[in-house]
Structures are given as structure tokens and as C-alpha cells.
Amino acid sequence: MNRKQTNRSASHSPLTAPATRMSERLRLVPTGSVSDPVWLVQEKISGYLLATLSRQNLQSPAGLVCVQRHDPWVHSDALNEAIELLDVAPPLQHQTQAQTPEAALSQKKVRHLWADLDIDPAMVKAPLVPESCRLQYGGSDCFGRPFLLHPLALAAWNRMQQTAAADGVSLSVVSAFRSFAYQAGLIQRKRCAGQGLPDILRVNAAPGTSEHHSGMALDLHCPDEPGAPAPLEEAFEHTRAFAWLSAHGSEHGFSLSYPRDNPHGMIYEPWHWCYKGSAD
Ligand SMILES: [Zn+2]
Fold it and tell me: Residues 44-76: pLDDT tens digits?
């Protein structure tokens, strides 16, 4: 019996192991309901969603759904690692009670990321935004990547997208939830390409301060609209999609976070819409 088979059979044993096992590279994010829990398998460093796991259906292929396209991940040791994590995960109700947004907001973690990126705290005017612990798989973005949103924002987004479609306006997601580490990676790549930090921070919020950490913010695009610009270009303001969002976004709880000359010091971002409904 190889290691994978051993781990699969072990996954059906009673949950007697203490929930102390940690993984360097993976975290399980609870979602779904207590009676039908689903766990999102997330890569810690990149914030990428790799797969969904369901304990009830682990014996069937449907129990593990790989959501990364062209991903050999399901055949790797990471699969075993995720199943081992699931084996020792506490019941979902305990997990969600223990994980509050406040617990997720680690100032120490943010300061470490800033130090790594040479970001002087005096440069950062925006308040810290906790990484949401309540995330739900929302489908695929316009690049075919899976995206996550807070369940409230996801419900509002689904309603808004359907209403827009009924009006003949096609909306797609470019980017949704982003972890602190993912945001740091975006900035690090630009620094490696030679961009100066002040210029980068006018475009990318410092890790820990992006609205995308909340799971409430969306970068939107309209790839099906004739003549649409590339994603995340200011010319998005001339699309029918932007006109529709400006007229109807607020009816669904979404508002433009960074208009021209915004007080946050960010560039004009006509594509960035944030759900401002109250999160429970
Ligand atoms: Zn954005």
C-alpha cells in the first residue's frame, strides 16, 4: 500500500487526533454549512485556491474537486497533506467560532511584509483591512482562475451580474479576494521589474490595506462587450458595463471605491467596486 492509499483510508477514522497539525504551505478555509461543510484548500503563500474538499464525500471522486485548471496538484503530495489536515480539523462550528476577522488580522504579519518590501509605515495612510475568514468559492474569473468572495458579497455579486445580463450587459470578475501575502507578491514583482515603491503604492494598496482582503471588493471587466479595453484600464469608464454599474451598482450594494482624485491617494479605478452591505 502506498502512502496515498494509507492516507485516504486514515481519513475515515474517528477524529481523535488533536487539531494541532499545521501545514507550511496549505490552509483549509471552512465554507458551506455546518451540516454540509466544504473546505477550501488554499496555498498560504500565493493565496491561490487549489481545491475544495468535502469530508462526507471523500470516498467518491466528488469529494475532492480540483478547481485549478491544468493543475497536476491532485496527483501530488499536497493532496495527501490536505487530507491529513482535514483529518484533524475541528468540527466546523468550532472552527468558525475560533476564527474571527480580528483573529485573522495580524498586525505583526503585516509589519513583517512591509519590512520585507521596504515599506515605511509612514507611507501607508489607509487603515488595515482584516483578511476575511468567511470565503466562498465564486466560480471562475475572466482568466479561468477560481475566485473567492465573502458569502454576502458573493450573493450580491451573483444577483447584480444576473440583473446586468438581463439588461444586456455582461460583467466578469478580474480579481476578488486577495490575501496579505498575495498582495505582497504583486508589489514584489513590480519592484523586481524596477518600479519605484511610491508609484507602485498608488496602484497597489500596501499588503494589509487592500479592500480585496475583506472579500467584499471586485475588479470587474466586460470581455464580451465589443471594443472593451484590456482589464484594469481606465478606458473601462467608457464601456456600457461601467455606465450600467454607475446607474445600478448601488442598488446591489456596490460602490466605486476609487473615483478620480480620491482621498486615498490611489489612481482612478473605474473597475474596482466594493460591496458595502453590512457583514454579519
Ligand atoms: Zn481592485
Answer: 766 666 666 665 545 444 445 544 433 445 445
73 and 40, same domain (yes or no): yes
Residue 210 CA, ligand 1 centroid: distance in Å: 8
What is the rounded CA–CA span in Å between residue 111 and residue 109? 5
Which residues line ion ligand 1, judged by CB < 5 Å?
Answer: 219, 272
Residue 27 lies in domain: 3-98
The residue type found at 180 is: F
Q: What is the torsional sign of CA 254, 259, 264, 267?
A: positive
Q: What percent of the chain has pLDDT over 70?
A: 66
Can you read off the three cell numbers belonging to residue 14?
474517528
Could you tell me the distance, in angstroms and rounded to a whole number, from the CA of residue 111 to the centre of ligand 1? 22
Residues 150 and 260 in one domain: yes
**95-104 long-range contacts, Cβ below 8 Å, gap at least 24?**
95/30, 96/30, 96/133, 96/134, 99/30, 99/133, 100/133, 101/130, 101/131, 101/132, 101/133, 102/130, 103/133, 104/130, 104/131, 104/132, 104/133
| Ligand 1 centroid from CA 260, angstroms | 15
